[in-house]
Amino acid sequence: MGERPLSSGAGADELRARFQAQGRPGLVESRRRDARQARRMYVAFAGLVAVICLVLIVVRLGKGDAVGVWTATYAVGVVVSGSGAVLARNGRTRRAMAVTCVAAAVASLGDSPMFR
Fold first, then answer.
1. What distance in Å separates the CA atoms of residue 15 and residue 7, rounded to the nearest whole number?
2. Out of 3, 27, 55, 88, which could bridge 42 as a Cys pair, Cβ 3.0 to 4.6 Å?
3. Of 97, 88, 104, 102, which Cα lies nearest the Cα of 51?
4. How far is CA 60 from CA 50, 63, 87, 94, 108, in A?
5. For residues 71 and 40, what is the distance between their CA atoms, to the nearest angstrom?
6. Domain boundaries in the chain?
7. Taking Cα atoms as reference points, which of 96, 77, 76 lies closest to residue 86?
8. Cα–Cα distances in Å, from 24 out to 2, 21, 33?
9. What does pTM read for this prediction?
Protein backbone atom coordinates (compact mmCIF):
# COMPACT_ATOMS: atom_id res chain seq x y z
CA MET A 1 0.00 0.00 0.00
CA GLY A 2 2.77 2.45 0.88
CA GLU A 3 4.86 1.76 -2.27
CA ARG A 4 2.12 2.24 -4.85
CA PRO A 5 3.33 4.87 -7.38
CA LEU A 6 1.31 8.06 -7.43
CA SER A 7 0.63 10.22 -10.47
CA SER A 8 3.97 11.99 -9.97
CA GLY A 9 5.81 8.68 -10.08
CA ALA A 10 6.96 8.87 -6.46
CA GLY A 11 5.86 6.39 -3.81
CA ALA A 12 3.77 7.46 -0.83
CA ASP A 13 6.66 6.78 1.56
CA GLU A 14 8.99 8.96 -0.47
CA LEU A 15 6.48 11.81 -0.59
CA ARG A 16 5.89 11.51 3.17
CA ALA A 17 9.65 11.61 3.82
CA ARG A 18 10.09 14.69 1.61
CA PHE A 19 7.17 16.41 3.33
CA GLN A 20 8.53 15.72 6.81
CA ALA A 21 12.03 16.79 5.80
CA GLN A 22 10.86 20.10 4.43
CA GLY A 23 10.00 21.40 7.91
CA ARG A 24 8.68 24.81 8.76
CA PRO A 25 11.07 27.16 10.48
CA GLY A 26 9.71 28.59 13.69
CA LEU A 27 6.79 26.16 13.98
CA VAL A 28 8.15 24.44 17.07
CA GLU A 29 9.05 27.74 18.72
CA SER A 30 5.62 29.15 17.90
CA ARG A 31 3.90 26.19 19.55
CA ARG A 32 6.11 26.53 22.63
CA ARG A 33 5.31 30.23 22.87
CA ASP A 34 1.58 29.51 22.58
CA ALA A 35 1.82 26.87 25.31
CA ARG A 36 3.67 29.29 27.62
CA GLN A 37 1.04 31.96 26.97
CA ALA A 38 -1.77 29.52 27.77
CA ARG A 39 -0.08 28.47 31.01
CA ARG A 40 0.42 32.09 32.06
CA MET A 41 -3.19 32.95 31.25
CA TYR A 42 -4.59 30.05 33.27
CA VAL A 43 -2.28 30.77 36.21
CA ALA A 44 -3.45 34.39 36.16
CA PHE A 45 -7.11 33.36 35.93
CA ALA A 46 -6.81 30.93 38.84
CA GLY A 47 -4.94 33.54 40.86
CA LEU A 48 -7.64 36.09 40.16
CA VAL A 49 -10.35 33.72 41.38
CA ALA A 50 -8.35 33.06 44.56
CA VAL A 51 -7.82 36.77 45.20
CA ILE A 52 -11.50 37.54 44.64
CA CYS A 53 -12.46 34.85 47.14
CA LEU A 54 -10.04 36.27 49.70
CA VAL A 55 -11.32 39.81 49.15
CA LEU A 56 -14.90 38.63 49.58
CA ILE A 57 -14.02 36.97 52.88
CA VAL A 58 -12.40 40.16 54.15
CA VAL A 59 -15.26 42.39 52.98
CA ARG A 60 -17.99 40.24 54.50
CA LEU A 61 -16.15 39.87 57.78
CA GLY A 62 -15.52 43.63 57.75
CA LYS A 63 -19.26 44.26 57.36
CA GLY A 64 -19.88 42.27 60.51
CA ASP A 65 -21.27 39.07 59.03
CA ALA A 66 -20.97 36.10 61.32
CA VAL A 67 -18.51 33.41 60.35
CA GLY A 68 -20.42 30.51 58.86
CA VAL A 69 -20.73 28.18 55.93
CA TRP A 70 -20.12 31.04 53.49
CA THR A 71 -16.61 31.38 54.89
CA ALA A 72 -15.95 27.72 54.21
CA THR A 73 -17.24 27.98 50.64
CA TYR A 74 -14.98 30.96 49.93
CA ALA A 75 -12.04 29.17 51.58
CA VAL A 76 -12.64 26.08 49.46
CA GLY A 77 -12.71 28.38 46.42
CA VAL A 78 -9.32 29.80 47.41
CA VAL A 79 -7.75 26.39 47.92
CA VAL A 80 -9.19 24.80 44.79
CA SER A 81 -8.30 27.75 42.56
CA GLY A 82 -4.81 27.69 44.05
CA SER A 83 -4.50 24.09 42.96
CA GLY A 84 -5.71 25.19 39.52
CA ALA A 85 -2.81 27.65 39.37
CA VAL A 86 -0.39 24.86 40.27
CA LEU A 87 -1.88 22.61 37.60
CA ALA A 88 -1.58 25.35 34.98
CA ARG A 89 1.99 26.04 35.98
CA ASN A 90 2.79 22.36 35.45
CA GLY A 91 1.23 22.40 31.97
CA ARG A 92 -2.12 20.80 32.77
CA THR A 93 -4.12 23.68 31.33
CA ARG A 94 -7.34 21.79 30.63
CA ARG A 95 -7.53 20.44 34.14
CA ALA A 96 -6.55 23.83 35.52
CA MET A 97 -9.43 25.49 33.71
CA ALA A 98 -11.90 22.88 34.95
CA VAL A 99 -10.66 23.09 38.53
CA THR A 100 -10.76 26.89 38.49
CA CYS A 101 -14.33 26.89 37.17
CA VAL A 102 -15.32 24.48 39.95
CA ALA A 103 -13.65 26.78 42.47
CA ALA A 104 -15.59 29.78 41.20
CA ALA A 105 -18.84 27.79 41.32
CA VAL A 106 -18.23 26.63 44.89
CA ALA A 107 -17.28 30.14 45.98
CA SER A 108 -20.42 31.55 44.40
CA LEU A 109 -22.45 29.35 46.73
CA GLY A 110 -21.24 31.60 49.54
CA ASP A 111 -23.33 34.43 48.11
CA SER A 112 -26.51 32.40 48.03
CA PRO A 113 -29.32 33.55 50.33
CA MET A 114 -29.22 30.19 52.08
CA PHE A 115 -25.86 31.06 53.67
CA ARG A 116 -26.56 34.66 54.72
1. 12
2. 88
3. 104
4. 16, 5, 29, 32, 14
5. 28
6. 39-111
7. 96
8. 24, 9, 15
9. 0.72
